[in-house]
């Protein structure tokens, strides 16, 4: 890398990220306004400090817009699915059914905010767990901000081996450790070990959000069981099949939570009346038009989500179907670009190819269409209801579109001009072997910047590998910390937060969400780094 790594260039690279954090956390500026400001600052530093020309900026911005489009169609289809279900008034039925299945309110929240969103992360990813899980929790009576925080925390542990291990495969490919089975195995053990702890901590955090000390006391055993099944199961399955390392434990956790609901400590009705996260106000009822409406069952209310699950599993897990549908791809041809310092972005024949028929948005769209036709046929969606749901969907998507596009274009410009590399290189140069403290934070920073653990691994795996070698650190531990840090950072990704505020109906409150989840993520990432430093450097293990 020819870009000079000085305290000045490092601070200038940090400036856009710092600005976002200050605006969103300190001043509660909505993401729709903060993202363009961060983008403008990154453009200014790219031109004045990092010697980027118009051609480079144009193509990096184009990459950002393309990547944002792929995410935004998930936003639109996820909101459409929610609006169709909401138009049929199915969430009330769903809530009543879940209360009958398990009268313990905390366990109900864990079923959706831990088990179901983890399952979605295992098979789809791309923000779908937050986009789908948030309105489901709101339907249970959780305040939107609390619902978003719970979904962010609940799905994050699956961000390395979820989406059928896309992030893990990126780590292996970028670092080149696939040719060394011993290092590959130890990297997986470090990653799954850290994530196992992270799984348990996020479960504890969900209980705390629900009911503080009383919630912790009631939910501790359930969280411990789920952590054993999910975190421990992921470690075990990853030893022989990384593709299904998240998916299989997520399936098993459904059985675990069902068993928990039969236990004496969770079988009886229980809730915290003054829970800070629950909305105890009377829900508005829909006025009847005088016509008899068929009674909706729980399974009928949840049927679009059943369809979503079946479609996703059939397409992604049945290889011939996946290969057949995945052959239709669209990507952008990108030329080679360089800064004045010689920092080069290689030419790409097909940048980030998009396979529409195997993408999460396609699954969500089919599920939404099923919901519309099924509920309409049953009389639960009245004439004109589908159009009303579509209008609400379009209205909700616009603010998130501006925010997500701004965040991702900013991250692409920072990466394409060398600013991201300077941030990481500067940390390594100053700390020496103490760099291992920040190894998980680098992964977390990558997730925050790109809203993707996979993208974080693509950005930083090679750098982390090289740095570990130069400093004499355990490569497996550093790479494991990289992707585990990316999973930790999934709780605070602006893109995921925007998805939650959009489907939760509270756009503009992204700063409030980030303020709540940031301390948890940062504390765990720093704690992980300190543990690695003590074990590997101080004790020399």
Largest β sheet strand count, sense and barrel closure: 2 strands, antiparallel
* Mean pLDDT over all positions: 89
Q: What global shape is seen? A: globular
Radius of gyration: 23 Å
Strand residue content: under 5%
Find the count of extended strands (DSSP E, 2+ residues): 4
* Distance N to C terminus: 32 Å
User: Which parts are unreliable, with pLDDT below 50 for 5 consecutive residues or more?
Assistant: 284-291
Number of helices: 21
The side-by-side strand order for the widest beta sheet comes to 1-4
Structural class by helix and strand composition: mainly alpha
Helix-strand string: HHHHHHHHHHHHHEEEEHHHHHHHH
Q: Bin the helical content.
A: over 70%
Describe it.
It holds the Pfam family Lactate_perm. Helix content is 73%, strand content 3%. It is mostly helical and 541 residues long. The strands form 2 sheets. It has a two-stranded antiparallel sheet. Strands 2-3 form a two-stranded antiparallel ribbon. Helix 6 runs parallel beside helix 20. About 1% of the residues have low confidence.
What's the arrangement of secondary structure elements?
Elements: H1 7-26, H2 31-48, H3 54-87, H4 90-101, H5 105-123, H6 128-140, H7 144-155, H8 162-175, H9 181-238, H10 247-262, H11 264-267, H12 298-317, H13 319-326, E1 330-334, E2 337-338, E3 344-345, E4 348-354, H14 360-378, H15 385-416, H16 419-431, H17 439-450, H18 453-471, H19 475-489, H20 494-503, H21 510-538
Antiparallel strand pairs: 1-4, 2-3
